[in-house]
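ugh ok fine here u go
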Amino acid sequence: MAVAHVLANEPLVMTADELTGNRDTTATNEVLRLFAGLRDMGQTLVLVTHDGRIAVTADQLISMGDGVGQVLHNLHQLLRGLRQTVRAD
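structure:
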């Protein structure tokens, strides 16, 4: 319902913070399909997530660490960074 309210205002950019955080896999996939359709219609989406299933659907990724953003241009860079993080833990 929240997505419908936002779209009714025809925003230039739509933001979503952990939108799938409390949803099961089926609901998460439905949200991803909705966002894919919005993107195909030209809607700009800015998503904040810790969920890799969401992150890999992005056209561009920005990883945040220590208050600094780093643009990750492709999935390979993201995966390399995740491996380094896992090793550090």
